[in-house]
Amino acid sequence: MIRVLLADDEAMVRAGVRAILASGGESEVVAEAGDGREAVELALAHRPDVALLDIRMPRLDGIAAAAEIRRATPRTAVAMLTTFSEQAYVSRALSAGATGFLLKSGDPYELMAGVRAVAEGAAFLSPKVARYVVEDLGRGAGGGRLAREERARLRVGRLSPREREVLGLVGAGLSNPEIAARLHLVEGTVKAYVSAVLDRLEVRNRVQAAIVAYEAGLVETDV
């Protein structure tokens, strides 16, 4: 079972997320917090596999809480619960160590898949918010959307066909075991491919690789 810490200042939201995760049979909410400071304290007490954090919370917002949780309990993965109006926070959340972005109003199966992905060390960007994530990360990087997409395609052009295939699956939020099953490879081979992809793209982690995958058109982002 994936042990989840759930933090949101709205009790109804927490109840809904808890029910969705329970219905999947893979995750259990081991602690709930109504604000960011309480989330950090509960993360230290319970050491969950995943901290699922609302962005806007009293006392300490979700992004600041994410940074503290990642410092204090580095084995806890962090995913942010977002809305369409909060894409401007994404780059800050990435800097704080978040590896998942899940839409509050998204499909329940998407929520379960996202929690599973980040628990397994993968990155997960909700398909419904991915294009907003890409646009936010691209601000200030020079050039418009078309220029960013062209740069991403050039970077992806360094990869072999198999590496591009792996990158697309990383962008879709699949974990190494899931990629191995999809491509009929052993997990060790997938790990080697992912490492090579990160090196050739000159990115630090799977989240940044996923962004390149989206910008290069390797992942579907239509809503």
UniProtKB/TrEMBL annotation:
Domain Response regulatory: 3-119
Domain HTH luxR-type: 152-217
A matching Pfam family: GerE
Claim: Nucleotide-binding is one of the keywords in the record: no
Gene3D superfamilies named in the record: 3.40.50.2300
Domain of life: Bacteria
Keywords on record: DNA-binding, Phosphoprotein, Transcription, Transcription regulation
Keyword presence, Phosphoprotein: yes
Residues annotated with 4-aspartylphosphate modification: 54
InterPro entries: CheY-like_superfamily (IPR011006), NreC/VraR/RcsB-like_REC (IPR058245), Sig_transdc_resp-reg_C-effctor (IPR016032), Sig_transdc_resp-reg_receiver (IPR001789), Tscrpt_reg_LuxR_C (IPR000792), WalR-like (IPR039420)
Record's protein name: Response regulator transcription factor
Lineage of producing organism: Bacteria, Bacillati, Actinomycetota, Actinomycetes, Kitasatosporales
